[in-house]
Write a structure and sequence with these properties.
59 residues, 2 strands, mainly alpha
């Protein structure tokens, strides 16, 4: 899917939204849109339930 915008992806300058099943594309999208470093992207995409603080608050 291509959304209108001022990105360098797509012929019309749109933003390409990756397939949700493709984690590498999602990580790249997060880094570019949110200007995150790689470690933060990995924490956001992999570590949600593994976070001890999150596990403690679920009890």
């Amino acid at each position: 899917m291509i959304l209108p915008g001022s990105g360098d992806g797509g012929a019309g300058g749109g933003v390409v939204v990756p397939d949700p099943a493709d984690r590498d594309d999602l990580r790249t999208l997060l880094r570019r849109l949110l200007r995150l470093d790689e470690a933060m992207v990995v924490r956001l995409t992999d570590g949600g339930a593994a976070d001890p603080a999150a596990a403690g608050s679920a009890a």
